[in-house]
Amino acid sequence: MSQTLRKTLEFISVVEPASVIVSIRNLSRTFGSVKAVDGVNLDIYSGEFLTLLGPSGSGKTTVLRMIAGFEKPDSGTIELGGRDVSQLPPYERDVNTVFQDYALFPHMDVISNIGYGLRVAGVAKEERIARTEKALEQVRLTGYGDRKPAELSGGQRQRVALARALVNRPSVLLLDEPLGALDLKLREQMQIELKELQREVGITFIFVTHDQEEALTMSDRIAVFNLGNIEQLGTPREVYENPQSPFVSEFVGQTNKITMDGRQINIRPEFITVSKSAERGDRIVKGKLHDAIFVGATTRYLVDTELGESIISTDPSGLLDVGDDVVLSWESEKEFLVK
Amino acid sequence: MKSSVARWMYKRPKFRLVALLAAPTLWLVVAYLGALGALLVTAFFTIDSFTGDVVAQFNLGNFQDMLTDPAYRNVVLRTLGIALSVTLICATFAIPMAFFMAKIAKPRNQKILVALVLTPLWASYLVKIYAWRSMLEPRTGVIDWVLGPIGIRSPGFGGPAIVIGLSYLWLPYMILPIYAGLERLPNSLLDASGDLGAGNFYTFRRVILPLIFPSLVAGSMFTFSLSLGDYITAQIIGGKLQMLGNVVYQNFSINLPFAATIATIPVAIMAIYLWLVRRTGALASL
Fold this sequence. Notes:
- The complex is a heterodimer of chains A (339) and B (286).
- Chain A has 339 residues and is of the alpha+beta class.
- Chain A has helices at 3-15, 60-68, 110-120, 125-138, 154-166, 184-201, 212-218, 236-241, 246-251; strands at 20-31, 34-45, 49-53, 75-80, 83-84, 95-98, 172-176, 204-209, 221-226, 229-234, 256-260, 263-267, 273-275, 283-294, 299-305, 310-315, 325-330.
- Chain A folds into two domains: 16-248, P-loop containing nucleotide triphosphate hydrolases (Rossmann fold, 3-Layer(aba) Sandwich); 257-334, CATH 2.40.50.140.
- Chain B has a single domain (66-280), classed as MetI-like (MetI-like fold, Orthogonal Bundle), CATH 1.10.3720.
- The longest helix of chain B has 35 residues, at 70-104.
- With 286 residues, chain B is an all-alpha fold.
């Protein structure tokens, strides 16, 4: 990169610093004796797609519900556009939510569901209809306006829920595992659509999921939650390639933990080459193929190694047989350390 | 032996159905429809004015008497008014109570609250109404005794007393269906309404009320029909006031056909009520 180009880029990033839209400070919430959220700090930038990723019970949904206003924090603050909203009821916050079960009003048709927020806000009927129609078009449901939620498929309901939230043009959209109830194919399709929609409308998305693949696919940044706190915050690449804690390395992607030369190293399965003799990389370990599991696009090998530990590797060809003597090899620069 | 009977039954689904439903059908036809039919038929009979015996001869005289005498019309309107008031009062008290039970109370307390709502149903109807009599008694009653010094006086015996007594008696029948309806209502719908900017009252009117309407109707069928047919409460705390049931009760020993004629009125009112309810579509989702 030329010196001038680098200067220009620095200049741009100085001129347009991403502004913080949600600022969370020392947020805590206890349910009974369980500390669901334990002193969370998080700045969310305007226009970004941020994912709160973590196993169930890690506090990610509670954080989302506190941003929405469904739960009150025991302590800490939530600033939305510079204003502390942590003590305000949900209806006084400029955020909208897409619920895990969609929470569509069963007694209203699609149009009334989507127009609900506008109607509450007192938007004139003509504008309401125009905006509702546009929202329907945005989620590709034109013509479904007079149906009841019960007459829609899961994917369609999901879209209505999305349109109902987006039509109000909130400054932040909260999504609580919205794809959880869809089957795999539809979920993958919706992941792409959601990401495109987010770019199109330019609204900040805060997305909760326990699915690490979903998080890696869609997010600008990921906050990995564990035991009520954020273990790591970073871009998908940072989180995947450079996990900052043992928990993150295991929760996001698969990791081999190997003790070599008296110290522990970590390596992702896909960086390990398994073959009968060929070596690719400066690390070489011999072993015997214990099991080969066909998982479609790749084959997962479980190798018993001379180190006395089993190593998992993935390989697209899958030509080796169980019981073969094999050589495992990888580039040591692909290894990562965990604090 | 057992298995061979079971196998024999298994091959004959119609026989199984008959075996299952014979007893309830017999009960329904003989005891229920039979009695109702007898009532309707009797309403068209008359009595021998000399001997007082029932004369099984079809005529419309009873209905003519009932419809032309303004005294009966007043009783019908009064009874309707009382039944409607009782239903409205029960609904007004039951909705917030049921809401607290279903949505605010902790799960462990919910069961206790349901049990508490049911407890008054274990006590005898008569005991409860006599209790109200001693509450409402002018000057010496509990209300005048406790609340008199701060200026609240018992309404005494009469229409208001009947409404209070019946509302007290039938309140559990209104709370329970509404509680069941609210239980079924997902909390996320309430969250969603607030999330979309609606305050509590708006959420109540646009989301909660339409969705628990079938439960309200179910409850109102109890409170309304039970009030419509009641006569004991009126007798004990109604003062000189009469409801339809009292008229039936009075005529029953002296003019059975006329009592039957009066008794068709609540049946007709309930039929109309059900028809109106059906038109709202609430029965479809009950």
